[in-house]
Design a protein that fits this description.
With 404 residues, this protein is of the alpha/beta class. The chain folds into three domains: 4-74, Arc Repressor Mutant, subunit A; 77-181 and 361-402, Nucleotidyltransferase, domain 5; 204-357, ATPase, nucleotide binding domain (Nucleotidyltransferase, domain 5), CATH 3.30.420. 44% of the residues lie in helices and 19% in strands. The chain has 14 helices and 15 strands. Strands 6-5-4-7-10 form a five-stranded mixed sheet, sandwiched between helices. Strands 13-12-11-14-15 form a five-stranded mixed sheet, with helices on both faces. A hairpin with a 4-residue loop joins strand 5 (90-97) and strand 6. Helix 10 (282-290) packs across helix 11 and helix 11 (294-318) crosses helix 12 (333-346). The longest helix has 25 residues, at 294-318. It is globular, with a radius of gyration of 23 Å. This is ROK family transcriptional regulator. Pfam families: HTH_24, ROK. Belongs to the ROK (NagC/XylR) family.
């Protein structure tokens, strides 16, 4: 059984760190008032945190009668976390400090060899980013990796990720832990995008949120009551396999999903080629639509209709505050307007639909939120059952600038 005195100490430390993290710069008296602990207890713990380099003084209170109090905040650069967005075509790595600000960012085309070569690539990029900053890799304490598939917690395989070969046959997370020498958390990239949108824009406001990503594939991240929903096997949100659109019994549908076959990049490109005999990229098809081309309008309208039905199906089961749409295709305003019109046609009530405000930074933001929370818990609440330390998000513009 855990030492109750130790648990009590951890709880006290955790609550005080949460107060400083959320409201800093803050005085010890304000922390005591906020947490209910005595000023002596707060002073002892804050002094210990300061001595260990986790907390620093940043001035004194202003405008008070009498003696001004010293105020404290978490030392932003006391440690770093790594947030990685692994895609089929590109790998992005962002190093963030304890305030959530991006201090370094690198991106490369995803290694086409797949498998362990991708693991090596991520480790090299993370360590290389620290070298560019002139700091030791040991400064990084936690890494969160967003992957385009479903992590299997038992085997470490990343399933349903056909764009990265061999990643479904290796213990991806364990190999990365060995390469980096730190705690590694692997999560579906759309799940991280949902967490990123919630953390940065809707925390406490819209705690029942669905992030729908439409691009090379289609997938959803589901946040209920402010918590990510993964499901029994981690496959919650794999809406590409909803059995409508294409024939769900066909082999291709069992591989990539019946819905994905009629909504994602290949469906739009293929549909346009079938209509016109010409091959264009998705951006070119949108340009043709804006120019008034009927064939482009027909193809995009078909995709929008299926996406709207998908949102209706999700809303019928979950009833979210809003559905945030992102991804290289989903972010297009033209498509979102079509989707809203289709929802009004085939669903009996309004479903709030919003464009992602984070764009291609959403998964990086979600990875940062997860990594910072995990690091704070590991540092300040170890062995404390149910511990949770929420780190306030940085300004969206600041995050996007740093991870551009």
């Amino acid at each position: 059984m855990a030492n109750p005195t130790n648990l009590s100490r951890r709880m006290t430390l955790s609550n005080i760190v949460q107060a400083i993290t959320t409201y800093g710069p803050i005085s010890r008296a304000s922390v005591a008032k906020m947490t209910g602990y005595s000023k002596q207890t707060v002073s002892e713990i804050v002094s210990s945190l300061e001595e260990d380099g986790w907390v620093q003084t940043v001035g004194r209170t202003e405008g008070n009668v009498g003696r001004r109090a010293v105020v404290y905040e978490i030392v932003p650069d006391a440690a770093l976390v790594a947030s990685v967005d692994l895609g089929g075509t590109k790998v992005r790595v962002a190093l963030c400090n304890l305030s959530g600000a991006v201090v370094a960012e690198v991106a490369e085309p995803t290694c086409k060899d797949g498998g362990e070569a991708v693991v090596d690539q991520i480790a090299r990029m993370v360590n290389g980013a620290t070298s560019n900053l002139g700091i030791a890799p040991s400064k990084i304490r936690v890494a969160v990796i967003g992957v385009p598939g479903v992590p299997d917690l038992e085997t470490g395989h990343i399933n349903l990720a056909p764009n990265i070969i061999g990643i479904d046959r290796i213990d991806f997370s364990s190999l990365l832990r060995v390469r980096l020498g730190i705690e590694v958390i692997v999560e579906n990239d759309v799940n991280l995008a949902a967490l990123g949108e919630h953390w940065m824009t809707h925390q406490g406001d819209k705690d029942d949120l669905v992030f729908l990503s439409i691009g090379t594939g289609i997938g959803a991240g589901v946040v209920i009551g402010g918590q990510l929903v993964r499901g029994a096997t981690g496959g919650a949100g794999e809406v590409g396999f909803i059995p409508f659109g294409a024939d769900p019994t066909e082999p291709e549908s069992l591989k990539v999903g019946a819905l994905e076959r009629v909504t994602a990049t290949s469906a739009i490109v293929g549909g346009y080629q079938q209509e016109t005999g010409m091959q264009k990229t998705v951006p070119e098809i949108f340009d043709a639509f804006v120019a008034g081309e009927e064939a482009a309008a027909k193809v995009l309208q078909t995709a929008a209709s299926y996406i709207a039905r998908t949102i209706g199906a999700i809303a019928a089961v979950i009833d979210p505050n809003c559905v945030v749409i992102g991804g290289s295709i989903g972010a297009r305003e033209e498509l979102i307007r079509m989707i809203e019109q289709e929802i009004a046609r085939n669903f009996p009530r309004s479903i709030p639909v919003e464009a992602s405000v984070l764009g291609n930074h959403a998964a990086l933001a979600g990875g940062t939120a997860v990594a910072l929370s995990r690091l704070h818990i590991a540092l300040f609440a170890r062995d404390l059952p149910g511990a949770n330390i929420v780190v306030p998000p940085p300004e969206i513009e600041t995050f996007q600038e740093g991870a551009a």
